[in-house]
Amino acid sequence: MQDSLRITASKVDPGLLALPWSTTLAKWPSEHIVSLPKGLSRHLVRFADLSGRVVAVKETTAEMAQREYDMLGNLARLDVPCVDRVAVIAGRTDAHGDPLPAALVTSHLRFSMPYRALFTRVLRPDTANRLVDALALLLVRLHNVGFYWGDVSLSNTLFRRDAGAFAAYLVDAETGELHEEGLTDGQRAYDLDLARTNIAGEIMDLAAGGRLEHGVDAVAIAD
Fold it and tell me: Residue limits of the Aminoglycoside phosphotransferase domain (predicted)?
């Protein structure tokens, strides 16, 4: 274990110490990596084996990793559907002593998939509508506890099939803010407008890739 390594966790899994933190995440050896579908992210994210379970490891700044770790803990206490936090790893250095990004470790949500991985062929309009409905329900729950997302999208959400419908889970809380006094009308409206814009863009992207039935109105689905 590196002397400079700092681990923040409610309970430290000893397996964390065996992961190659002195190597940049992009170059982790294959024996540590688990191959699973993943969504789009502004940061590098890879799935890894931690003591026989799958975790997601995201490289980011120490400040952002700690902030998101704290936020996920708060959302879990409020019983909001989201991924479980595992740890923040900071103080990483490579073999030459040069600094490496901090890492946020979260549990992989079993049986969940990013929206792109749900469609290996062509996305039917009713399926797209069910996905958006699930995301809308998640957004209502988040707003009801005073959470302003600031980056609502299908890409920042994981989905589980649930008796013919979908259940949505927040997977990226990096931009979120929790307001104990509740959200203003302006904050709610901004999240909704951003959701419409991002979802329409993501559906259009599927259409451009030939994964959406011809003639489907992406804007109508987003609304």
Answer: 45-148
